[in-house]
Specification:
The complex is a heterodimer of chains A (324) and B (235). Chain A is an alpha+beta fold and 324 residues long. Helix content of chain A is 29%, strand content 15%. Chain A contains 11 helices and 12 strands. Chain B has a domain of 155 residues. Classes of the chains: A alpha+beta (324), B alpha+beta (235). At the A-B interface, α6, α10, β10 and α11 of A face α4 and β5 of B.
Amino acid sequence: MNDPAATPGPSRSLEEVYKPITRRTFLKGAAASLVGMAGLMAALRPLLELERGEITLEQLLQKHYRELTPEELNRILRRLEEETERQHGVRPHIRDIRPMPGVEFAYALNLTRCIGCRKCAHACLRENNQSREDADDIEMSYIRVLELQKGAINLETSNVYYDPERVPQPDKYYMPVQCQQCRQSPCTKVCPVQATWQEPDGIVVVDYNWCIGCRYCMAACPYDARRFNYKKPTIPPEAINPNQSYLSNRIRPKGVVEKCTFCLHRTREGKYPACLEVCPTGARVFGNLLDPDSEISYILRNKRVYILKEEVGTLPRFYYFFEK
Amino acid sequence: MRAVLQWCSAVLAVVMVPVLGLRGGASGGTAPVAPGTAAGGQNTTVAAFPVELPVVEKPPAQQPPVGLPGDAHLDKTPPRATRGLDLVKLGWTYNCMECHKLLPARWHYDRPMVEHQDIRLEHGNNRFCLNCHHPTNRNAFVDYDGSEIPEPDVVLLCAKCHGTIYRDWKAGVHGRRNGYWDTRRGPQTQLRCIQCHDPHRPAFAPMKPLPPLRYPPRAAGSPERTRTARNLHRP
């Protein structure tokens, strides 16, 4: 009986009711649709590449690493070897190495012993085939050595670009930081396409063919452990390490994220990672956490270790300790 | 008898003068004199050894390989480099007894010695050669009870004082292990104490760091940009 439509409301002008297209809203809408179009074109770019013959249908339709059958994976590995040979002039040996049963890797680093010589960071470049030749290139080593003032662990005032005549400087100590292979890894949780995940032996890996390059994982990582390929990697053929694996050190395409994998192509075969091999002072200790006789178990039993940024709750598999 | 001894020492001095003179010439004419470090409060001086000598390759038996031969792209050099004249090529065998069977052992040496002038003994309280070296067999080291510790077992000598570090070394926590962490799948090498530490000066010498990772030149906070910005504000 009391119709709300019939009640007289506050009087509104015709422009307010109909909202005619002003110059401002028109420009806004045009800009928004342009951005939308650009996004659509970017999303459809693989189809253009397919038409131009830059990628094959097989590459476009390649499944996620964990869904591949052994035959499919084998075909992909041979194809990747051919591609690398075509693009970089060296035919590598790309394998797919699975985790060893009963093994969980962990790393420990003795900060009293580390002298900040950066040998580990440069060995990482050699082992993992990172882009490193262009003058305008960012060096992509997975290890950053922080120079810290003695007396506190203050990462905010640390310096990565130190270059004195001699190290160690008397008032400084040095802390190499790389992927901490967290048990609660924020990077794998934020990935919108699940291109990065944790393997049974604790190593967080990336399927470079599945990564879309959104870099959410880089934003999520509290340790700055991930690197992005802004350009096609440039490595001279003689510097390429031919011992490669699908999930670790094969030469990455442009536009994907990469990270430290504890050199899984070495460690899953029982070898030590490259950064440990070159450490002149023996500051680095690596081993199987599940083996009670391993070096890393000895450290966790007998030394006072600490983990980096404990408060963020990532539960790293990378431990630091001070020991003469 | 006393006269004979004096005559002998005079002859020895005449013989040694050219040798010492040769050394002075090798170091560039003027042999600088550094204060003696080994003999405590005694007023002795040691001629500093010329420092820019080539790195000597010791026989393979004394320098076992580090890590795996397949890892040639990784620089696994231990931090200790033995510098000196390359006597191996001249037939030198590092057999200490070639000379020391003639030179008797004495507990207290008056520096400067004629030989071993490159040795700077800065190892805590160990002031004398025979603190570690065996008095009758210089190719070996001396144990608590005076028995010999053969050269390959030098770790046992160091363990006489550095017990906790020896314990950690045996567990693989102190020092370097290379090769395979999984010893069921391949060989593992472990460096002994003296492959990293110079036993006469155990502290590591500071070294030149490898170059820093390149900062993206145009990025915010780049050292180059900060430098120019600072200069702009300066008069």
